[in-house]
Specification:
about 280 residues, alpha+beta, D-amino Acid Aminotransferase, Chain A, domain 1, 2 domains, 8 helices, binds 4'-deoxy-4'-aminopyridoxal-5'-phosphate
């Protein structure tokens, strides 16, 4: 089945779908995005994704391209036209199409593009053995809480990680000396005292939807959660480490740079959270 994209009011085969060259997302990265999981015929955590989209749009003063209710219908229809029961749905909203000028255009409607792809849950090998991450300097702008399409620093970090044989880059804020998050995921450790640690919310990280779900489930399960940043050194000495995102679920991390984490295998807290998250997805 040909992949179908929604672009500004029309459903088109992906190879024919296009935006104009004066699209501000293309010219200035002047837009935001969301990625939502569709699991066994239903969206998971859609309310949280819509709330974050609203915060990202507000943060950049971009108008909703349509009502939230209409957007939900477009998402469902795009998935339906692609004939998928499991999908990752990408939503991009930009400040629209207008003659090039840094200033906000007057009267240009926001652009909306929706595409879908097949999800790829972590494989059995990744769940059993974990993945490697490598540290990279966090050179991003100061509003990482906005899910902006401006991903250049993330792209460079992820490419550097790949070239060093790692699955993800863990970004280090060199002023604060702490790990903020991954290039496209949130970062966690279980420290020497058994506490689940992750960088607190704020402008330095994207508040992951998976992060919010995982922390709620961890607390409800009696795991001590400490939203406190950790250094790269603390990460290397941690009992356990893992990362989360909508597209990579909960993925164990067993190597950071040249250091093996814990006993080199995913730990019990990580395995418990994988189980809880999988149950959550089924229940959604
Ligand atoms: N941080 C960054 C920088 C990301 O790009 C992502 C993935 N969009 C995340 C964290 C995880 O967010 P979520 O759990 O909502 O996918």
């Amino acid at each position: 089945m040909a992949r179908i994209a929604y672009v500004n009011g029309r459903y088109r085969p992906i190879d024919e779908a296009a935006v104009g060259v004066e699209e501000r997302g293309f010219q200035f990265s002047d837009g935001v995005y969301e990625v939502v999981k569709f699991v066994k015929g239903a969206f998971s955590d859609l309310d949280r994704h819509m709330a974050r989209l609203g915060r990202s749009l507000d943060g950049l003063r971009i108008a909703w391209p349509m009502t939230e209710k209409a957007l939900r219908l477009v998402l469902a229809e795009t998935v339906r036209r692609n004939g998928l029961r499991d999908a990752l749905v990408y939503i991009q909203v930009s400040r629209g199409v207008a003659p090039r000028n840094h200033l906000f255009p007057k009267g240009a409607p926001s652009s909306l593009v929706v595409t879908v792809r097949r999800p790829k849950a972590p494989g059995a090998d990744e769940i059993e053995n974990g993945v490697a991450v490598c540290s990279q300097p966090d050179i991003r702008w100061g509003r990482c809480d906005i899910k902006s399409v401006s991903l250049l620093a993330n792209v460079l970090a992820r490419q550097a990680a790949q070239e060093q044989g790692a699955r993800e880059a863990w970004l280090v804020d060199e002023h604060e000396g702490v790990v903020t998050e991954g290039s496209s995921s949130n970062a966690y450790i279980v420290d020497r005292e058994g506490r689940l640690r992750t960088h607190p919310l704020g402008e330095a990280i994207l508040g992951g939807v998976t992060r919010s779900v995982i922390l709620e489930m961890a607390r409800a399960d009696g795991i001590t959660v400490d939203e406190r940043a950790f250094t790269l050194e603390e990460a290397k000495q941690a009992r356990e480490a893992f990362l989360t995102s909508t597209s990579s679920f909960v993925t164990p991390v067993t190597r950071i740079d040249d250091h093996s984490i814990g006993n080199g295998h995913p730990g019990s807290v990580t395995r418990r959270l994988i189980e809880l998250y999988n149950n959550h997805l089924v229940a959604c």
